[in-house]
Amino acid sequence: MSDGIFVGGGGADYGEKQHLTLKYANRHGLVAGATGTGKTVTLQILAEGFCKAGVPVFMADVKGDLSGMAKAGDPGGKLHGPFMERCQTIGFDNFGYEAFPVTFWDLFGKQGHPVRTTVAEMGPLLLARLLELSEAQEGVLNIAFRVADEEGLPLLDLNDLRAMLVWVGENRAALGLRYGNISTASVGAIQRRLLVLENQGGAELFGEPALDLSDFMFTDSEGRGRVNILAADTLMQSPRLYATFLLWLLSELFEELPEVGDPDKPKLVFFFDEAHLLFDGAPKALVDKVEQVARLIRSKGVGVYFITQSPDDIPEDILGQLGNRVQHALRAFTARDRKALRLAAETYRENPEFDIEEAIREVGVGEAVTSMLQKKGVPGMAQRTLIRPPSSQLGPITPAERGGVIGASALSGKYEAKLDRNSAYEMLKARAEAAAKAAEEAERLEEEQEAAQREYNAGRRYSGSRVGRSTSKPVRRSSRSKSFGQQMQDMVVKELTGTTGRRIVRGLLGGLFKGR
Question: Which of 50, 150, 174, 198 has the greatest number of C-beta atoms within 10 Å?
């Protein structure tokens, strides 16, 4: 089947061969199952299939296993025999070992090319989610972003955001007249959260050069799509950072890619592993926006595949949009487990030949209950399926092999050196220095004027009948010199006048809308 990805099949005890049709691959999907049931292998064979079809892929490697895609499987290895036996059972005659074009990425820059964005590009909504801010604190953060956007103060890294928050706190009286009350307690709470984020390694995420999404969209000389693998084993120690980063990446794809309608194959497939982290504790407003992105990003040619342990980890409205399903075994030891199992079975189109709930409970490792979209996007009947073996290495490559792939990458050297250009921190620092210098000059002038006045008073002459004065005129002042705080307040009011035309447009999830 040339227009689809072979997922698996079976013999007498299983259903017909299952293919993921490329035309419907951007209608999203779900890979679910308990730990150790084969989700990673399914993820690997789907990525291989998309790659060979010329579709770039992005995937997070939370266990370190997916790096093996950069190396061909071993025909002399201990898995070769079982692989050949399975291929014969499912009728997979074209199986062969091969490596795939892989680009490694790493938020911390150790196991791949560094991945960065700017504070401004992430936006206040996702940053508030990352920092777990209260409603009042999120409001103050929004004010900081609004003033920075309007005044052309680039928020690139955490130093810029800290400086902006300090400035907002110092000028809260003037800003409060325009945007509402600004509490110093809220500013302090945000600063403490930023410190926690920095200690968790979040500072590495923010800065320049920022990620260019076009670097995900490569195809190689053979027309195969690039497999982008994010090293997430360390990142998973900060699950909120992991989930927010992937959500930001998804929102960037949504904002930047043009509409393509219903293409013959996706422009990119995005695998969201450990998807439950995205929704755990998320406010309804954020979940609603994620649902909106998932619904609309299909028209941009992007397929999103959620990988999680149970379908009930995904909100119902989003789950209903996931047309292609691979359900590995679910264990039902508790009442909650049995409820999740029943709900998972109910999301499939019934097959009169077997009980879906029982099948999900009984399938072994490397087996699954599958349902793929068919003609006109209609879900296929549930089928018990033996998943095909991967062509690339099962398990991680060595650090030396990874280093070789990174060194040979066309992107080598593009992101490694961090830039520190003039931004909000430097601009606000310059403003403060200029204001301090102006205050110092004003104080000097005031002292000179007072000295001149004293000299004039000392020059009075006594004539015996009236007070005479010297013919020299005293130095006159129109008003008393303003204090540093007053000058800063005047500067704020002056700068906030007439800024409406300079506002920066933000997208659905609060990130900068850069257009096309």
Answer: 50
